Amino acid sequence: MSYSVITYNQITDPEDRKTVDFLRTVAERVKKLLEDANVTRYTCSIGRSVNNEFNVDGGIFSIFRTQFTDGLSLTCYIGNKKGSASISSSITDDENIVSAVNDAIAAAKAAEDDPAWVVAPKEENKIFVSGNLSFDKDGLFDRTTELMDTLKADFPSIMMEQAVTNHSRGVSLYFNSSGTEFISLTGAYGADFIYSAHDGENSSSFMASGFTLKDLDKSFIKTGFLEDSLKEVEKQVYTKSFSGKKVGKLIAAPALVDELLSSALENFADDYSILNGTSIWIDSLGKKVADDRLTISFKTNDDIFVGGQWFSSEGYLTEDYNIIDKGILTNFDISAYTANKTGFRRAPNSGSNMIIEKGSKSIDEIIKETDFGIYVARFSGGAPSISGDFSGVAKNSFLIEKGQLTYALSETMISGNLAELLNNIVDISEEQELDGANAIPYICFDGVTISGE
User: Does residue 215 share a domain with residue 299?
Assistant: First the structure.
């Protein structure tokens, strides 16, 4: 499990207890204001967090800072009318709390009547603890410095344009009118990098990498696919344009796989597309929508992740599930509201912590078996159409010919259809990028149009 469940008496840090007590006081104030306004149905989340971060700009440490953040998000129902409001300012100031409650009530009064809105029934009250609540400032500085030293020694052409390494820690409280109370104590390290390669006046396109970590046991360069990405970017300083137009294979790096498959699920299986009837999969539950090697899971409770989603905004405890199981669409990624409107089953969670089942071949083997195609790490394009058609510029990409990555590409377009891609899978890699939030392999798709000058 990505979390443990404890009792209030098992909270060992006095500051955490003090924060929980304070949040409960704020919760009682919100409940009293709603009661005085005769509002009997509601959900609310309140929280307090601290973020400690190092910033590197242009390869040089620029700042260390600590940020404290309060937040409150409230949804209330007057009859069958829903209204919401949120604040990111101090919750010690009663005026801010009163303002949020009044804004939510006003929004509800102005809303349209809709009986599909729900608040989950009473769940067992729980306190969740996840990640690493302790912040090792020296350890984070050392790991960040270690990465910068490694870049200078082993990747001299790489410019770290921006790096943000941090530890974020928070306490939050969720409650609703059914009597449910969920408290979360969370902590994690994070790292986000933007970098490019340079040779004199020539430079590559920028690339971004990031991950979430429970601890600092492993060097950043060996985390995720950062080292592989840096090696690729070094080879992209000098690029060539592809000439002509040809249909071939697309080998998508994990970040692009995440983008493409998330877009497909958003277009074909989420609240908006199902509620409005625009999904081309609306009649496909229990039917084949993808290659039978494709299984996509949302496992918010899996211990390979740092943190997760243990309950929904409506107040339901979450469960892991497969949205596509061996190519078969088994569920839509929809809320209780959309389920009530459409008659489909509510998703067991809201679609976080994606795992795409890995294959049996290495990425090197997949490339060697590709006669013609394109390897793409990043994509720049607009949102796909309702039918799934997409088009955009391949970034951080290489042409593949006769099983070899040949030269880095510039000004090359790729286009295709997301629904067709899912049925045109050639291979899925045995490697998975684990970034703390998702587990994504490389995937080779067929039938993509590659266009150059």
Answer: no
